[in-house]
Amino acid sequence: MGSKKRMTGENDHDILVGLDLGTTNTTVMIAEREESGMNVIGLGTSPSLGMKNGVVVNIEQTVDSIIQSVEEAERMANVSVDSVYTVVSGDHIRSVNSKGMIAVGRSNNGIGNKITREDIQRVIETAQTVQFPADREVLHVIPQDFLVDNRDGFKDPVGIVGLRLEATVHIITAAQAAAQTILYCLQEVKTYSEELVLQALAASHAVLTGDEKELGVALVDIGGGTTDIAVFYDGAIRHTSVIPLGGESVTRDLAHGLRVPRNEAEELKLESGCAHSSLANSAKEIVLTGNNERPDRHVTPDIINSIIQPRMEEIFDLLIKDLRQAEVLQKLTAGIVFTGGASLIPGTVELAEEVFALPARLGKPVGLGRLSELADSPVHAVAAGLVLHGAKQQDAINRGLRVQRRKRKPARFASGRFENIKRMIADIF
Ligand SMILES: Nc1ncnc2c1ncn2[C@@H]1O[C@H](COP(=O)(O)OP(=O)(O)OP(=O)(O)O)[C@@H](O)[C@H]1O
Ligand SMILES: [Mg+2]
Fold this sequence. Notes:
Dna Ligase, domain 1
C-alpha cells in the first residue's frame, strides 16, 4: 500500500466500511475484498455518549464518537473513509410480512412464459404496496418465497415457466426521524451512507450458518440499550423486532441494588457478573470500597447474580412474548444464537436454554479473513455483519440483480438546521 490513502468512494468497491452506531460503543470496521475473501484491515471503537436505547439523542456527541472511531480505523487501515454501511436500531423499528402477485402472461402455445428477472422485480414491487404512515421509512424489502402457479418452494424462479408469480416479502421500517438523524450525523462528518441496515440483520450475516437459517433460528443481539431480534426459517428472514433493554439496564440495577456509582456497577458486572445462579461462586468476597460517609462493604457473586438474573429473565420473557406473538417460537429448531456485549455475561446461554427450553450458543463473527482476530467477539458481530452485507449488495449489483442505490444524504435538512433535528429527536421519545 502506498503512502497515498485509498478512498472508499464511488468506484472502489474493494473496500467496505461498517459503522456500528451502538448505545454503548461506536465501532468502525474497514474490510478489504481480495480473491481469498474479506479481510479486516482496520477497526476503531469509542464510547457512544449521544445514544439512548439505539437512537441518536445528541448529535454533537454522536458526531464526536463517529469521528474518533473512523479516525482510529483509518489510521490502522491507511484508508480514507467517505462512505459507510450504517446500523439502525431502536424500538421504533416495525416489520411486516406481505404478499404480491403478477400475471407472467400466456405464451403462444398457451402454457405460460419463462419467468424473467424483471418479473421478479415487478412482483416484489407489488408486494411492497403496503401503506405506511408518512413518518415511516422503508429500510428493507427482503424476498422470502416465490410461488409459481401455486407451487411453492422457489427461492429464485428465473427460467421457470408459469402463468402466475407470487412473492412473499419481509418489510422492515423505521421512524423517519431516527433514520434521518443518523444520515444527518454522517453528513456532519462528510461521509455518505451506502445503506442503513437493521442491526439484527447485519449481525445475522456474521454469525448464523446457512443450516441454522434453514432449520429455524433466532438471532438475539443483547447490546447496551437494545435487544435486537431476527428470526429465520426455511432459509429466509421471517420476523424482526427490537426490545429497548440491554446491558445498561443490568448496570443500572446493580448501581441501585448495591448503592454504588454507575461506573463501579459496570466494573462489578464485567468482573463478577453472572446470569445463572448455578455459576455464581458464593465463597468469593468482593470489596466495595467505601468513602468518607460509608465504610467498606463486602458482597459475594451470588448477591450480584440475584440482581442480574431477574433482569436477564425479564429480557427473555419479553423475547418469548414477542416470538409467540409473531408465531415463530415453535419454528426455532436450531434454537437461539446470542451476540452483543451483554450476551458475554457468564451464564446467559445457560439461562436462555432453561427459559426457552431450546439450544443456545454465543455467536462470534465468521466469514472474515486476515486480522479477523480483531473482530473475534460477539461485540463486533454487527460491524462485521455490515461489511459482509455490503459485500453481498455489491455482488448483487455486479451481477445485475440489484440497482446501485444513490448514496444517501439526509432528505430535509441539507442546510443543517439543528433545531429541526432536535425537535425530531424529542418526537421519538
Ligand atoms: N465481557 C462482558 N461481560 C459482560 N458484559 C459486557 C461485556 N462486554 C460488554 N458488556 C456489556 O455489553 C454492553 C455493550 O454491548 P454492545 O457493545 O454490543 O452494545 P451497543 O452495540 O453499543 O448497544 P446497542 O446495540 O444496544 O445499541 C454494555 O452494557 C457492556 O457492559
Ligand atoms: Mg449493538
